[in-house]
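User: two proteins, same treatment. go.

Assistant:
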Amino acid sequence: MIWTILVVHLLSVGAFSAGLSGNVSSSRPAAVSIGAIFTYNSTIGRVAKIAIEEAVKDVNNNSSVLHGTRLDIRMQNSNCNGFLGMVGALQFMETDTIAVIGPQSSVVAHSISYVANELQVPLLSFAATDPLLSSLQFPYFLRTTQSDLYQMAAIAEIVEYYGWRDVITVFIDDDYGRNGVSALDDALAARRCKISYKAGVPPAAGASRGDIMDILVKVALMESRVIILHAYPDVGFMVFSVARYLGMMGDGYAWIATDWLSSVLDSSFPLPSDTMDSMQGVLVLRQHTPNSERKREFSERWRKLTGGSLGLNAYALYAYDTVWLIAHAVNSFLDQGGIISFSNDSKLLSVEGHNLHLEAMSIFDGGNHLMSNILQSDFIGLTGPIKFNSDRSRILPAYDIINVIGTGFRQIGYWSNHSGLSTLAPETLYSRDSNHSNASQQLHSVIWPGDSTAKPRGWIFPNNGRTLKIGVPRRVSYREFVSQVPGTNNFKGFCIDVFVAAVNLLPYAVPYQFVPFGDGRKNPSYTELVYLITAGVFDGAVGDIAIVTNRTMIVDFTQPYASSGLLVVAPFKKLNTGAWAFLRPFSANMWAVLAVFFLFVGIVVWILEHRINDEFRGPPKKQFITILWFSLSTLFFAHRENTVSTLGRLVLLLWLFAVLIINSSYTASLTSILTVQQLYSPIKGIESLKHSDEPIGYQVGSFAENYLIEEMGIPKSRLVALGTPADYARALQRGPKKGGVAAVVDERPYVELFLSSQCKFRTIGQEFTRSGWGFAFPRDSPLAVDLSTAILTLSENGDLQRIHDKWLTHSSCSLDNAEIESDRLHLRSFAGLFLICGISCFIALLIYFIKIMLKFRKAADSSSIAQDQGTSRSSRLQTLLSLIDEKKDKSPRDRKRRKMDRCSSSDDSHGIELERNPKRSQISVDNNVL
């Protein structure tokens, strides 16, 4: 390690001065040298060595690639050691190497990249997947495989697809493991998931079975049962073996391994039966390489080369394509006139201590040009399209998802950066629009650990004997919702029954105990109760806890089990129908307009009919009365005057239609007023309450106080804290003028329970907030999710309603009787009408009798009959009665009819006389002639 630090320091200090080494090749050299650094005896190294050698052979045999220039390869064994990798890289720099393939280890890549930067030699790794090997820090480093950034994104989508929220990572504690887990943490956070525990394993030979045993024992005590294993093969298989020994490969667990396992399965299959048995049901990722004819031909060739003893994995294909990538880039470099030349590094020449022979290393003058050609490459290799994006990553990243079953494995789907999880090969989806919606994500069925086909829940309660502490408020009012059983820590009430019923529906046992919260003298602050969950005092809270914004920011709530929202409660009074209720259907303006229109229509009809209709003629007084009578009688369709003009009939027809509509509307409105109970309150809702200056009551401990102050802008001085329903009633009855309140603002469940026993108050206006009651748990608690499902089940099967009816359905206010009473019509509702009719009758009779008495006095004064006192009284009575009974001819029609009757009577008597005396008739005729 000291040597590594020393070399890095030597390479990163000093000033640069270029000098030609004299070793300058011609424009098209006979050979170019490249190097390769990897671990020979590793799973990846064994296949990479064969793949690189075959690729170099194929390039040299293909004259169309380098056009006669031979590609020479030198290999170094790094043994996954950063220092040895550094030494190997330095040795390459002494031999005019223009590019280096490798290393396979991310740890070694970090060290060698400093050398590549200093000497400007492109470093192309086919297996270093550490996402922190960035192009900004290491401009001469290029990854020809996929970054773990995409692999961790694929794992995060799998976790989200199965509905898990917490995972545990077991990883190798070096740059490769730590940086990969960091990328996974970011990918999970983007999907509201998280790593609940990170278990680092000492790298390489530093990890013993005992160390892994200690690590997995701690993992077993955690809640999460989804474990991501990101390690090297030797450590990974040891983890599986210990996990099987501890019973962690059974039902309820979910294991996901990164592509280290797929590379072993592909290259060393079949594995020993004990090894396969220890990882049954594991999901594994493998870098996806599309099927092609070239790939199939290379696979056949591979089997012949290895005799079937070594399988072909994805990293062998990437190593093969890396050689071809360098060959194409070198060819472009030479075609563009590039010259392979090297210069001495003045930084190394200035370093004292020449025993290191640093002066032998040279800078590749065309390194930047060659690196540019590599990044611009665009061809089809065994691994698919070889092209790089702006981040220097391979385009179209994709992974196979396989499931270890029995003695083999089965592919259950794919992941691609283009369309997420799918059962279709990624290359078939690239022509479609990118789609990561939940509906489009799909995988085949999985056989999970324990030979189970049921998706693991992903978490359980830890087996460490800890019981959940559930905080419950000690209410002093509305105890139907939550109340403590005296002398115990047990609770009862609507909220408690719902929680117990939901817990009983869970497919696992939940150890919990209720912990009282509050002093028992007043309702506690529910916001403070919620904050104690985040502080770790409580593991959850059960009660009538409203789900509001400031609380959801710090805890997770279950599905609401009761709807809630703020309502305004105020006193009301019944609007008595009264003696003048019949005037209420129309406003005063409406009555005035009706009166004017009745008179106006009567005048219009009189004008149109006056000249041609005898019924609209006569003295002015009579015509005025006719106008009034005609217009008002149309209200009841009782007019008797006929209209003869066309215009008059048209006006009357339209007016009668209007009268019909007015009558119908009046009847309907009056019926509603007389039969439906009318309530009145000076407060119309929260807005009218807000703009007044009257005091407002609220329940102690409720979120209504903060809402009214912060959201509604009501001064705190106007708010009055009330503790019990009795306090509500007293404050409302007193009113603001007597030290009470104008209204009370509280949540719907409390208001409904209060009004069930207080019939003098009503809710005013609409519910002005929408929320509900739920059970609170720490953020990302899986118990909140499972209880939400249980609450929905209670709602669907009717148990939630039965619990509600048990505790909250009782009322002392008889609404049915009130409705029946309001349907009955009382005498007081029509007293005004009877009074008007009675007064009009009385006045008419009074006027009539006054007129009769005046006539009677005139008749008595003109009488000259002298009788005794008794006879005089009798005659006066007879005269009065005769005046009352006498028929008076008021109208010209009546007088005309009487005159005609008299004439008819005279003519008849005269005819009789002529019949008796014909001579007299003749004399009469003669006289007429004369």
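Protein 2:
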Amino acid sequence: MVHSAYDCLELVPNFNGKIEAIESYGSKLLLGCSDGSLRIYAPENDSSDRSKPYVLEKNYTGFAKKPVVSMEVVESRELLLSLSESISFHRLSSLETIAVITKAKGANVFCWDDRRGFLCFGRQKRVCIFRHDGGRGFVEVKEFGVPDVVKSMSWCGENICLGFRREYVILNASNGALSEVFTSGRLAPPLVVPLPSGELLLGKENIGVFVDQNGKLIPEGRICWSEAPLEVVIQKPYAIALLPRFVEIRSLRQPYPLIQTIVLRNVRHICQSSNSVILALDNSIQGLFPVPLGAQIVQLTASGNFEEALSLCKLLPPEDSSLRAAKEGSIHMRYAHYLFDNGSYEDAMEHFLEAQVDITYVLSLYQSIVLPKTTIVHEPEKLDIERDASYLSSVSDDMEPSPSDENAALESKKTNHNMLMALIKYLQKKRGYFIEKATSEGTDEVVLDAVGDNFASYSRFRKANKGRGNVSVSSGAREMASILDTALLQALLLTGQSSAALELLRGVNYCDMKICEEILRKGNLNVALLELYKCKSLHRQALELLHKLVEESRSSQSEITQRFKPEDIVEYLKPLCGTDPILVLEFSMLVLESCPSQTIELFLSGNIPADMVNSYLKQHSPNMQARYLELMLAMNENAISGNLQNEMVNIYLSEVLEWHADLDAQQNWDEKTFTPTRKKLLSALEGISEYNPGALLKRLPQDALYEERAMLLGKMNQHELALSLYVHKLHVPELALSYCDRVYESTRQPSVKSSSNIYLLLMQIYLNPRKTTASFEMRIANLLSPQNAAISRASATSVKSRGGRNSKKIAEIEGAEDTKVSLSSTDSSRSDDDTDENEGGSTIMLDEVLDLLSRRWDRINGAQALKLLPRETKLQDLLSFLGPLLRKSSEMYRNCSVIRSLRQSESLQVKDELYSQRKGVVKITSDSTCSLCRKKIGTSVFAVYPNGSTLVHFVCFKDSQNMKAVSKGSQLRKRSN
């Protein structure tokens, strides 16, 4: 789109002469004519306003012998270079000729490198390089031969770009190597134009090609002129080309659009000045003066050329930064609305970002987005655009749409999808800033409240609003963050990006609870709704929804895209164990039966008190109480307390008693029948110690469950009764032996009587006749009486609590009583046998006794065991007992003898060393001095330190010892104080 970038003004009217070259210096114009003269024009009255007509200031008629073909002003060195018959250097101030390069005679083109002071010119098929030495002289540097006559040239870094009649080449100024760039056009002469960036613009017919300093093409596009240009000058941001019929101005920004066309006939040369472009015509001089940037920006904006207007805004001077920002913001806004109206939604959002408008302004363009109520109001501009806010609604069933309507609906849906996608990108770019600001404001609020007077009220406010989703936000940043996140979530859902919506909800977000909950419920987006509840700390609502989804997944027979499992509830509850254990227990009951292991692991990993869990299970799920205690005990033996252990044993016992009552009523009870629950009970009674055996024993029936009774009696240290049950009720000697082994291994203490006499007690039970049932039951009843139970507990406690000499005495007394019982039973064994045979008809179990002696000979006191045996016992039957026992005794005797001999030998060695140490000799001479007082020992009493060489007076030694004692006493007093 064309606009006025330059104003054309006539500077020198009615020029009489033919201009061959033109240059500018400051406000002056230097015109080289065909007659070899140099005319200088300047504004009238030395005015800096170059738009006024210029007048002739000086005319150097003899400036050159031939026409001045080309000129260049070097302001940094105050030089003027002119190409006529040769190349000459003049002072700018006086135009005095200071140097003439005679070798340049016949040259047709030259170029100057101002940075290094290098001159390069082309003469016929030769290229020469000279260097300015800073004074009046020039030094030749290089000369290279080229394949053709040079038509155009320019320095490009360290190299030189040459334009021949048919091609462009890059000449290496160091070694003369040529590298081809591309061919030039046939209709127009080769044109090499340097750019301010150091790159080059090469002409090929009507196309300007950009190359770098090495001649490689730059893929940024091409300038396409209307015709092949004769000359081109660069004045940012435009390129001005002299065409045969007019002057064409194009932008240097892609796609290099046409900016302005100035129709002038017979333009011979074009020259760039400091702030204008000079045109030399046949009979006049014209000047192209740039229109002020502000006016150009207004033109471009009004005509809808926003990109070009924005590019010009960047050229405004730094002192107009506020004006620049205002203009850029206004242009971005208008450009954004233009792009939005024409369907370029993503580009529109980019310009809304650049304009830094409020997000509510952009969201007002989307009527389908529901926003939370806000105190921030931004009225949008009126737009000539109709948007379908209900594009997601389906077509009415009673209307049959025509094909054109269907196409229009499809196109509308596609358009709205593109609109929302652009909005998503816009919001995502803005989101980071608002989330960071909202989070920092929230942190500052908490810190201020914590150190201020209203800390208590803030805490009450936080507690009162805990778990609420729609807490009003007073912070502006958090309010804007809520608007942004709510809109972003809706846009993601409307475009089908459910996974992105989930990611948004899982991170830090400020979505409005009410709006988002309603949208997610209507869309049946349960996973996203769960995440919304979770991020808002509405855990009860989330768990209720999750339980509902689990039940639906379990009952539904159809294929569901996403099924929910009870394990999902367990995973949700894990982070809540430390903050809300009651809620965890409440909802864990729903999944305890379906996934008990994971639920128990949840209780353990969450460090929920076991007593709390047990009481909750006992109240709400008693059938899972034992399972919980089992799994908890299996996972962590130390995690279950004595109270819970007792609870678990009582649960097992209750189930076993019910099972026994059922079988007993059917008269099908068998003592050797074991169910899984009974096995668990026996295992618990054996492996667990923290329960009340007396209370459990009272619950057992009198004529059944003997093994359980025996274990409980064993826990009460009633070993005789327990072994009697194994032997005479259960008739399983192996269980009795195992019982003795457990007692022996668990109580291998010298102060405990049972550990060494338990096997002797079993022997007595084997050897003594079985008591009558009435007597046995009477002992059990007496044992379970409250008074005896208390006495037994007190005695057991006193025995355990006493230590040292008292406990040893008690053990000796009890051992003496056992020995007494054993001896009396041996003497009266025969009479007892006779009595038992008459009463119960039982015999001595001698085989079991002999088997016990042979298997546990190393744990039984041999002398006491022999005293218990009947007199008629054969010695041959005791070989398996006495053989290893005697061998062990002999071995111990030999070992003790060896040890005694070794100790005697060691004692003799020590005595010998002592005697040798006592033989030490200390020689006192007249030179021997005391190590403490430094005086000679003489005939005084002395002492020798253990090293044998340090001598001191005995008096000095005693004084030093007294001083050490005094210092130690003072230190002790200081510490006590």
